[in-house]
Amino acid sequence: MATVAGVDIGGTNISVALVDDEHQVGDRHKRSTPTDGPDAVLEVVAELLGELDEEPAAVGVGMPGPVDDGVVSHPPNLQNWPEPVDVGGRLSEAVAMPVAVGNDANVGVLGEWVAGAGRGSKFLLGVWMGTGVGGGLVLDGRPYTGSVGGAGEFGHMIVHAGGAQCGCGRRGCIEAYGGRANMERAAERAAAGGFPTTLFEIRDDKGKDRLTSSVWDRALDQGDKLAVRLFNEAVEAVAIGIASVINLLDVDRIVLGGGLAEKLGDDLAEQVEEAARPHVFLPSAKRQIVLAELEDDAGMVGAAALGRAAMLLG
Amino acid sequence: MATVAGVDIGGTNISVALVDDEHQVGDRHKRSTPTDGPDAVLEVVAELLGELDEEPAAVGVGMPGPVDDGVVSHPPNLQNWPEPVDVGGRLSEAVAMPVAVGNDANVGVLGEWVAGAGRGSKFLLGVWMGTGVGGGLVLDGRPYTGSVGGAGEFGHMIVHAGGAQCGCGRRGCIEAYGGRANMERAAERAAAGGFPTTLFEIRDDKGKDRLTSSVWDRALDQGDKLAVRLFNEAVEAVAIGIASVINLLDVDRIVLGGGLAEKLGDDLAEQVEEAARPHVFLPSAKRQIVLAELEDDAGMVGAAALGRAAMLLG
Prior knowledge:
The structure is a homodimer of 314-residue chains. With 314 residues, chain A is an alpha/beta fold. Chain A has eleven helices and 13 strands. Chain A has two domains: 124 residues, 2-Layer Sandwich (Nucleotidyltransferase, domain 5); 171 residues, Nucleotidyltransferase, domain 5, CATH 3.30.420. The first copy, chain A, has a five-stranded mixed sheet with strand order 3-2-1-4-8. A five-stranded mixed sheet of chain A has the order 11-10-9-12-13, sandwiched between helices. Chain A has a three-stranded antiparallel sheet with strand order 5-6-7. At the A-B interface, strand 10 and helix 8 of A face strand 10 and helix 8 of B.
């Protein structure tokens, strides 16, 4: 009946919450992510844990980067983090309680699995559509992280070999079409080439400096042709990737989450399902593509579940 | 210390062997696969088991088709098999011993894992390059077959969306480029279009009616331009698929087997490794792409391992 703390470390904010053994979120605190490296990040986490109105029995942490046995290497959205850092070991020493660390995409899928749209599935793929395209897996009823903790890079599976350039430097990966950062670059190129679009006016109207999910949402609502074209390419790339994963892994549930998925709602799951169908080798009536349910809480709930599991396993 | 029988049911032959607990193959028997349906196939298997010079403690069977809990549906290369058949249940009754049934590609990977080039890996992808392109997985130290036994269709992951037509009816899957049947169709089209090639002369010289692996091998040795081009496309498609699997699953070993891989030897592993490298998201020095070791015995050895595991688990 222990309460566990879930920590979600993002490029912008660090969020900490108490999560009970029914995966309900209690007291929560949030602060901006320091930009001056691991020491400052760990200090803020320890402070936020200290502000909780109850002492947790364990801590789980989701980190935006590759995690192998508690060690976090080169998190692309955390600044001044040049060397691998043993986040698990250092935080556990600082707060004197058991700490488990996972990659944020994997941890988010874990959250949806224990308490959201993935409940009850033993073969689950989670896909996060945001600035990039992330993923995570539960296979044979267990969270799956691979041989050195690098599993889940769904966004960097290749669906159009030799195709569009991705921010990762490669070509033709799913994220080259389905990630918001790459979609924005494609929109800029098309607009510079004279393709008419309201995307950038909507961005300015909303006072944003980027094509956020809400900008895409409004442009799609208005039937903006460029937005529709790029969005359809995104859906197609994600759907083909999902079909490839179904063919390889025979998963029975796919949960779609992330900012873009949240904004676009139920339609997205249907569109992806329809676009995936022609590429699926072995159809199954039991297989479902559904939207995530926990929104921003998925990370903290999943991190807490990871911390709880680590505590129970000793 | 029990001896187990491994049964490898293919479209052409049924092979049965005794396999000891160190995965060594003993007495073996082989017969043509009957074309008149499941009853005849099961009868031949029972007869072959009866011919073994020792009574096995259990039986494992590899089947060329989807297997879910012993039930085999629509094996594409077995004739007159219109309905799903409970091969496990029926065979177990007929021979009065424990029987476990798996898909042939998965079972072959299991063989390489317990006794061949996959030994010691806990995160293994096996790729079979033959008439088609098959696959199998060991994940987190356990054979992986998916939610309804349909996992491992590596050959039907999509690498060139909208690309070449595959025999499966879809476009752009790995098998469309890397499977011998599709390579032969592409060679026929190119030859009909006037592309010069010695592939069909070599086929006739060898007295074959198909472009077998040995025909490709000789044409490549002679530097036949069409053979080289189609082979490079095959290597590229397989390599991109392997990179996608590495990115999704963080496997640490990839075993390449099947007729085409056996014929082309060590070069193939290096060529695939080189073609995969630019598409891999998280490089790892520990990751290896290697050739299979057991050749045709992989199926029987893997089937026996499956039978042994089923016996031990009750």
